[in-house]
């Protein structure tokens, strides 16, 4: 697999770019070096740029986070998140999984993620017995982000009441700084083992790329490149949506493969994941 040093060689091949955030644009704390400059070069060439993240928060919250990292809003055209899509699905309730859901949600996750039920699209229930469904946005500060085991009692209680789970982040892990932390997807795996019903909102579901194409204002997916650090979500999702994918060697990829990955090893890993990115890139830089 070819490993590019930066995005410049591909810039003119595509009209639009769909970028993952955690692990590509930033590490959960700060922007990766070279990212603003790379985005500026793309925008200077008239390219459209949208962020697609499995973060379990609404887009306005994520924009505020990027503002806090001093990323100029002029460098991108929009943000779509699993949290934003979940909020829309709970509001519309037209999807077959969401249509029969009641309005009372037993929440596993930090309070900051409750933007996904704001404006009355659902309400928090104190315990599984009083809930209609399980809203899983990931680990909370009390039980921590290192190990899913502390969440098993709550998951078992929800399963005992046969609550369907809405998993608002299909990621199993994420890198925050130098730490590899669990995400909502890791809790969904346990719930499935318990016999629970789970609907995951986010990549790799190709449906989440539809609103991203609206943000880009483009129709031809062959002219759009998706960049992500995780094969089974970012790269698989792009393939399912009919887009080329570029594998970023930052975030989880850096954790798994180091600073100087072996091209043949990357090719084998991609094949084992059922994906075929056009290349890898050392980092999102020009």
UniProtKB/TrEMBL annotation:
Chain segments annotated as coiled-coil in the UniProt record: none
One Pfam family recorded for the sequence: Hydrolase_6
Cellular component annotations (GO), alphabetically ordered: cytoplasm
InterPro entries the record matches: HAD-like_sf, HAD-SF_hydro_IIA, HAD-SF_hydro_IIA_hyp3, HAD_sf
GO molecular function: phosphatase activity
Record SUPFAM superfamilies: HAD-like (SSF56784)
PANTHER family in alphabetical order: 4-NITROPHENYLPHOSPHATASE-RELATED, OS08G0542600 PROTEIN
Name the record gives this protein: HAD superfamily protein involved in N-acetyl-glucosamine catabolism
Source organism per UniProt: uncultured Craurococcus sp
């Amino acid at each position: 697999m070819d490993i590019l040093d930066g995005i410049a060689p591909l810039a003119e091949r595509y009209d639009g770019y769909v970028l993952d955030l955690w692990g590509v644009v930033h590490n959960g704390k700060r922007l990766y070096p070279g990212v603003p400059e790379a985005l500026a070069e793309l925008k200077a060439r008239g390219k459209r740029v949208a962020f697609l993240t499995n973060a379990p928060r609404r887009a306005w919250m994520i924009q505020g986070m990027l503002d806090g990292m001093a990323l100029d809003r002029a460098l991108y055209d929009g943000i779509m998140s699993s949290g934003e899509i979940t909020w829309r699905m709970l509001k519309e309730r037209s999807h077959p999984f969401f249509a029969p859901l009641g309005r009372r949600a037993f929440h596993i996750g930090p309070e900051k993620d409750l933007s996904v039920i704001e404006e009355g699209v659902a309400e928090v229930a104190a315990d599984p017995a009083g809930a209609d469904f399980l809203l899983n946005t990931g680990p909370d500060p009390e039980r921590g982000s290192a190990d899913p085991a502390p969440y098993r009692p709550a998951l078992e209680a929800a399963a005992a009441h046969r609550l369907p789970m809405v998993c608002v982040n299909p990621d199993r892990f994420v890198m925050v700084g130098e730490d590899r932390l669990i995400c909502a997807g890791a809790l969904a795996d346990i719930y499935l083992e318990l016999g629970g019903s789970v609907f995951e909102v986010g990549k790799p579901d190709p449906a989440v790329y539809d609103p991203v194409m609206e943000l880009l204002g483009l129709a031809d997916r062959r002219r759009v490149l998706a960049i992500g650090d995780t094969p089974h979500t970012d790269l698989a999702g792009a393939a399912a949506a009919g887009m080329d994918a570029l594998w970023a060697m930052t975030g989880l990829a850096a954790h798994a493969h180091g600073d100087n990955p072996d091209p043949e090893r990357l090719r084998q890993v991609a094949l084992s994941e059922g994906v075929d990115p056009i290349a890898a890139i050392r980092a999102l830089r020009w």
